[in-house]
Amino acid sequence: MQPATSLEELKERIDLFLLGLRHPILTEPGREVMDLSTSHYSLSTEYQKLLWHVWNEQTNFVRQITGIQKESAGRMELRFQKFGKGPPGTLILAESRAAVEQVARRSQRVRYTQTLRRFLAQLFPQWKVEELTSEAKLDQSFSGRYARGLLRRGARAWAVIGSGEQEDPSAAEGILTYGLLWLDWLRRRNPGRVIEGLKIFVPANTAATTLQRLAWMDPAVARWEVYETGEELRLCDPADAGNWKTSLPPLAEPIPRPDSVQRWIERMEALSPVLESRYGSDGFREWTVRGLPFAKETAPGLVFGIGRSETVLEEQTFAALQQLVEKLLRFRRPQSPDPQHPLFRLLPERWLQSLLVQQITLLGYDLIPGAVYEQVPAVSGTERGLMDLLTVSSQGRLAVVELKASEDIHLPLQALDYWMRVHWHQERGEFKRLRYFGGRLLSPEPPLLLLVSPALQFHPSCETVPRYFSPAIEVVRIGLNEKWREECQVVFRLTR
């Protein structure tokens, strides 16, 4: 590891390291652990010093960072100097491991498994409970977040899966993926037994997403029952899925800009033809290099920076913007001098998205170049982490494109979430009313659903889960070459 040669480089290395952590914590020996995902902080260069200010409801502290002592995967040790004549010390920036909490969570899961067994005995006294466990089996993609089992009565059987209140809300959101994998595994392991379907148990008021998804499962393939647990056990009505969390915004209209702002935009875009821009639903633009955002419009003017760092673009900061763009162009390109550099590795889905927006015809199905919308409609209240594209064929058939640059077990059902919302708006004629696709005549045929990923990065769930979808949904897996950054090519197309 080379030492930082300037405060700006030191700050950048810390910022980039932070971007790679999903749940960063900051620890100073003798003090409490600070959860940076729930705290406010500022890392700034002032008076020729790099100052880190962290504050939340419990603490408020400032340290002068003087260097990086050690750095490894998921861990960085920083040297700091206290103000006054205090001795130097070490801050540890790392990914949270929460080993003590994991032990407690495992105990909670064992207790929930026992509770689920009592629920099953109460609801189905004539049935025998078999194989009820919450032990994880990673080779079969069975997560410890869920208790799973089998109900048997003679030759009849049901698969069972449940998630308790001790789990975070994402467990209830993801339970159907694991339930389908469990059902499919039981059927393959017991070919002579009729396993009728899947019984799903989730905490009170968390069944809506599962019910919405089950509405688009094939009833000829399996039966489904969903129960909510709480003060009382309740069998959910399949029609009681709650309101859709979706909106279809009008097409963004560019906002008139003062001449001074327009001049800054022209100066910035003149730095390189590689720079890309797109309008958000608010009418403001964002600029990227191969999908990585580095500048955006705000009401007061233009700002730039990577991650949470924002610097106002003005005459005295233009040189810093130019240096940032030069660094992005150097490292974020197919022939990068350092493929391990964070600027190369960050946001791979956004990079892949930027390529396919320009080459949508590569996917086939007579898709129209230039008629591509990103994240439309919007799914409110969720952080998906996947890239959604909506496009159309020359025959007017809508196509939902879901992208993933690396393996993700939830890809099929998260793609289904987006497909359902597109179909919902389609049935109400909203794309036509708001003049999406330039007013082109759209087909009433249900949208095509394309799952796109590098060929070797598809999780096995992408083959299993779509088999349970309604026949009305045409699902196609499109595998890309592994070196898609250099030249994007389709390796295979597989219809479920």
Summarize the structure.
With 496 residues, the protein is of the alpha+beta class.
Note the topology.
Elements: H1 7-19, E1 24-27, E2 34-35, E3 40-46, E4 49-55, E5 60-72, E6 75-81, E7 88-95, H2 99-123, E8 128-133, E9 147-153, E10 156-162, H3 170-189, E11 194-203, H4 208-214, E12 223-229, E13 234-235, E14 246-247, H5 259-269, E15 276-279, E16 285-289, E17 292-297, E18 302-304, E19 311-312, H6 318-331, H7 342-345, H8 348-358, E20 367-374, E21 378-379, E22 387-393, E23 398-403, H9 411-427, H10 430-433, E24 448-454, H11 461-464, E25 474-480, E26 490-495
Parallel strand pairs: 10-11, 11-12, 23-24, 24-25
Antiparallel strand pairs: 1-2, 1-7, 3-4, 4-5, 5-6, 6-7, 8-9, 9-10, 12-13, 14-21, 15-16, 16-17, 17-18, 18-19, 20-22, 22-23, 25-26
